[in-house]
């Protein structure tokens, strides 16, 4: 069957951060007509947030915290949202005690029963605990080489096994390596210059981004239900799973999924902080009380517990050698697709933060704009 021409300049598969950013720039700065095709019944991808039945704003796919060092990105997004402060704290429950996480000086003092640590004495303590592994080859070796076996088993081992359904020794060092060890008393998870959250929520922000007469949106629509026959005049931007695009020609890439359990409480607060990790035998990995981040004033609160699954929507790529090699095969196929651009977490089989996803959309638009002056 011959491809059907369309009057769209861009067909964008996926209404998440990448797709919305591309569409917004294309419509507002180049007057390109865009079609966004979204399989779900909402926009914003996994950043989607909504009011639950009690009126509490929840993050439907787990907490999404916006942070960046890029002032230009903040300036761009400020066209579509006001901001609230987005600092948040995480605690890890070990032996019925809550510890700051990522590990910092307070964590080390409490766990090892010592006092008055400073960066130098803390490093000496860790040096006495760490396992001498000069070139860590996996997550277990990486953590052991930094903090030793006691803290590895208390804070990392069971959590990682639950999260990935794999022993840390089966995962790339990067999985646990992206979690910092802080030799200070900073209680916050991230240290970026800008730690903010859209004041009215992510969904409201992305809705404003694509509110344009040149942007058409089709929800509840599978791109592969004949829409792939549409050939836009400029390009297709594909943000879905790359293996699905090629009909799983080489097999399926592995993903970890999550199941979310939301519980409404008839009180203003339940947890002392936004996130509590559970590196133990219980099924869920963490519980999240999102009001700590949204700053919403409400007499009720909602706590969301997360249980990792092997089946379901794809959330986290599983970084190991076999998946990396499989992805590279699909990446090679993608390079041969004419005027199709693969961008984002699913299309590039990589973990990215929200700011990185939006930036990928902006960078891609810049590339397309330069090619079609």
The gist of it:
This protein has 13 helices and 19 strands.
Descriptive notes:
- By secondary structure, the chain is of the alpha/beta class.
- It has two domains: 4-87 and 193-252 and 317-371, 3-Layer(aba) Sandwich (Rossmann fold), CATH 3.40.50.720; 102-177, no CATH class.
- The chain contains 13 helices and 19 strands.
- The protein has helices at 17-30, 71-77, 105-112, 119-129, 139-147, 149-164, 173-177, 202-209, 242-245, 291-294, 321-335, 345-348, 354-371, and strands at residues 4-5, 10-13, 34-37, 49-51, 57-59, 66-68, 83-85, 90-94, 97-101, 194-198, 215-218, 230-231, 235-238, 255-265, 275-277, 286-289, 301-309, 316-317, 340-342.
- It has a seven-stranded mixed sheet. A five-stranded parallel sheet has the order 11-3-2-13-19, covered by helices on one side. A three-stranded antiparallel sheet has the order 6-10-7.
- The model has no long low-confidence stretch (mean pLDDT 95).
């Amino acid at each position: 069957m011959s491809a059907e021409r369309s009057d769209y300049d861009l067909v964008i598969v996926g209404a998440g951060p990448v797709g919305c950013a591309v569409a917004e720039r294309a419509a507002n700065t180049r007057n390109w007509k865009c079609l966004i095709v979204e399989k779900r019944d909402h926009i914003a991808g996994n950043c989607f947030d909504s009011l639950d039945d009690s009126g509490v704003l929840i993050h439907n796919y787990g907490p999404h915290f916006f942070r960046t060092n890029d002032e230009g990105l903040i300036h761009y997004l400020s066209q579509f949202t006001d901001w609230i402060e987005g600092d948040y704290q995480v605690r890890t429950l070990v032996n019925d005690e809550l510890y700051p996480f990522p590990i910092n000086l307070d964590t080390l003092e409490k766990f090892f029963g010592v006092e008055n640590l400073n960066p130098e004495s803390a490093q000496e303590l860790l040096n006495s605990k760490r396992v001498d592994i000069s070139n860590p080859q996996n997550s277990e070796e990486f953590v052991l080489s930094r903090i030793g076996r006691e803290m590895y088993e208390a804070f990392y081992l069971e959590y990682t096994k639950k999260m990935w359904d794999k022993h840390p020794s089966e995962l790339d060092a990067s999985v646990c390596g992206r979690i910092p060890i802080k030799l200070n008393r900073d209680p916050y998870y991230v240290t970026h210059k800008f730690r903010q959250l859209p004041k009215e929520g992510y969904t409201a922000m992305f809705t404003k981004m694509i509110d344009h007469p040149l942007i058409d949106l089709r929800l509840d629509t599978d791109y592969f239900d004949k829409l792939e026959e549409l050939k836009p005049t400029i390009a297709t931007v594909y943000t879905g799973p790359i293996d699905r695009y090629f009909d799983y020609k080489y097999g399926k890439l592995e993903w970890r999924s999550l199941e979310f359990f939301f519980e409404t409480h008839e009180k203003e607060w339940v947890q002392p902080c936004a996130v509590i990790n559970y590196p133990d035998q219980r099924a869920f990995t963490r519980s999240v009380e999102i009001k700590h981040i949204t700053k919403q004033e409400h007499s009720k609160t909602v706590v969301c517990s997360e249980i990792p699954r092997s089946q379901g929507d794809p959330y986290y790529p599983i970084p190991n050698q076999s998946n990396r090699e499989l992805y590279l095969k699909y990446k090679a196929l993608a390079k041969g697709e004419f005027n199709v651009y693969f961008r984002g977490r699913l299309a590039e089989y990589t973990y990215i933060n929200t700011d990185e996803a939006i930036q990928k959309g902006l960078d891609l638009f810049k590339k397309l704009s330069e090619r079609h002056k």
